[in-house]
């Protein structure tokens, strides 16, 4: 979501036109867009990319579901099949306190349909690239498709190797359940040193 990026950090866009989906125009769509996840397949299918011969999607959930025609090539740089819909569904439901009750069954039904949509849309991708061998294995498991591993671009020359170890540890991550930041904090709280 482009509105989530502060305007002073959008230089990489080089004043290119940005088109967002209808989800951003829904109540709370800019800040609580995760609540609209059942609408995401529909939202991504509304982008008209018919003017392009090559479409490259960068996807960890819905972007690979864009619609392309028979004369277009679609390359998907896949960061993961949808974790909360596939192998991590039970963990997500537990952490969201959605293991029982009507809301749990509603979410499970929606996830079932998202899995069907996700698997079907993999057929519209001409070639998959994965950001690691692990993700390539997940792509094979879920979509039954090979993926070329292309590691994320990191300017390793911009970092220098520290010779001296300081008295702290650092983790950097999105605050999402599967990253298990809680487990890292708990493990370090049990270490007297």
Quick structural overview:
With 193 residues, the chain is α/β, with parallel strands linked by helices.
Keywords:
about 190 residues, alpha/beta, four-stranded parallel sheet, globular
Describe this structure in words.
By secondary structure, the protein is of the alpha/beta class. It has one domain. 28% of the residues lie in helices and 10% in strands. α4 (133-143) links the parallel β3 (127-130) and β4. The longest helix is centred in the middle third of the chain and has 21 residues, at 102-122. The mean pLDDT is 88.
Topology overview:
Blueprint: H1 40-45, E1 54-59, E2 73-78, H2 89-95, H3 102-122, E3 127-130, H4 133-143, E4 147-149, H5 181-189
Parallel strand pairs: 1-2, 2-3, 3-4
- Enumerate how many helices there are, as a single number: 5
Strand order of the largest sheet: 1-2-3-4
Instruction: Give the uncertain stretches in residue-range form.
Output: none
First-last Cα distance: 41 Å
Cα gyration radius (Å): 19 Å
| Order of helix and strand elements from N to C terminus | HEEHHEHEH
Largest sheet: 4 strands, parallel
Which percent range describes the beta-strand content? 5-15%
Helix-strand category: alpha/beta
Number of domains: 1
Mean pLDDT: 88
Strand tally, please?
Answer: 4
Shape: globular
Indicate the percent of residues in helices.
Answer: 25-40%
């Amino acid at each position: 979501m482009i509105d989530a990026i502060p305007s002073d950090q959008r230089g990489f866009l080089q004043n290119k036109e940005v088109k967002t989906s209808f989800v951003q125009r829904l109540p709370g769509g800019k800040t609580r867009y995760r609540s609209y996840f059942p609408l995401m397949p529909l939202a991504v299918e509304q982008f008209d990319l018919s003017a392009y011969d090559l479409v490259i999607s960068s996807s960890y959930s819905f972007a690979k579901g864009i619609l392309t025609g028979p004369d277009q090539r679609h390359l998907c740089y896949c960061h993961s099949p949808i974790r909360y819909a596939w192998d991590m569904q039970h963990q997500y439901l537990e952490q969201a306190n959605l293991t029982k009750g009507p809301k749990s069954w509603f979410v499970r039904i929606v996830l079932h349909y998202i899995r069907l949509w996700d698997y079907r849309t993999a057929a519209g991708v001409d070639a998959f690239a994965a950001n690691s061998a692990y993700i390539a294995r997940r792509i094979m498991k879920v979509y039954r498709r090979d993926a070329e591993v292309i590691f994320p671009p990191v300017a390793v020359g911009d970092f220098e190797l520290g010779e001296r170890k300081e008295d702290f540890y650092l983790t950097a991550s999105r605050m999402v359940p599967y990253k298990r930041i809680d487990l890292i904090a708990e493990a370090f709280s049990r270490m007297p040193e």
